[in-house]
Design a protein that fits this description.
It is a single chain. The chain is α/β, with parallel strands linked by helices. It has helices at 41-48, 71-78, 96-106, 111-124, 140-152, 170-185, 197-203, 221-231; strands at 2-10, 16-25, 30-34, 56-61, 64-65, 81-84, 158-162, 189-193, 206-211, 214-218. Helix 3 (96-106) packs parallel to helix 5 (140-152).
């Protein structure tokens, strides 16, 4: 699904914020991205959703080397990716319903199909009574749930989420994590950036750990148990 080979990133003439990053996300995998504040998690995510080009190294996505692609050629790759941004990036003049419906309208889905899917998803995330409310009148947690619903409405092949449960209480946070788990079981590859170690331990997926510009991979005990079960 994604492969980074000796990837580095710097801003301007400063030192590299990411240095010699190597990892791969297999189709259908689920990873957490963690590390101290300022370690480069948001920068790594920006490379993964093709919002930025690396300073050096090779990034392969969906079997394509992204290095030589034009902005137009990147569009079909980006359409396979759902992103939950930390600052939500909702369109302020659109209701919660229309924000979530936007990716489906871009895909040309019928209004009947859009209505059914958006209503069901907003009900599921606890916003059934806020469908026609503007983001400016919603709490941070409510806006976050709208942003998550918008990111998953098309069932993307890859979902990237930056602190998706950061403004939510535990009950809603775990409910949304169960939504991510369900999407993953349906084949979506998922990476979640979070500082929440309790969340990481509860769900037990493989960790990508950023620190000092470098990245290490720590396999989960859940993953190891599945491998052993598969062998024996």
């Amino acid at each position: 699904m994604i492969r980074f080979e000796h990837v580095g990133l710097r801003y301007g003439i400063g030192p590299e914020v990411l240095s010699d990053i190597n990892f791969a996300l297999e189709p259908g995998s689920f990873h957490f991205l963690t590390g101290p504040s300022g370690a480069g998690k948001t920068s790594l995510l920006s490379l993964m959703y093709l919002g930025r080009h690396p300073t050096r190294g090779l990034i392969t996505m969906f079997g394509q080397n992204t290095g030589g692609l034009t902005r137009k050629q990147l569009v079909p790759l980006r359409q396979r990716i759902g992103v939950v941004f930390q600052d939500f990036r909702l369109l302020g003049h659109m209701s919660a319903f229309d924000n979530v419906a936007l990716p489906l309208r871009i895909q040309g889905k019928s209004e009947k199909e859009i209505g059914n899917n958006v209503h069901e998803l907003l009900e599921w995330v606890g916003l059934g009574d806020h469908m026609h409310v503007l983001p400016s009148t919603m709490s941070g947690g409510q806006q976050q749930r709208v942003a998550i619903a918008r990111a998953v409405i098309t069932r993307p092949r890859l979902l990237l989420a930056d602190e998706p449960t950061g403004n939510l209480d535990d009950e809603i946070g775990y409910r949304l994590m169960n939504l991510f788990e369900q999407l993953n079981r349906m084949g979506t590859t998922i990476l979640i950036a979070t500082h929440d170690h309790a969340l990481i331990e509860k769900f037990g997926h493989t960790k990508l750990i950023l620190d000092g510009g470098g990245l290490t991979v720590e396999q989960s005990t859940h993953w190891l148990a599945k491998k052993i079960e598969g062998v024996f």
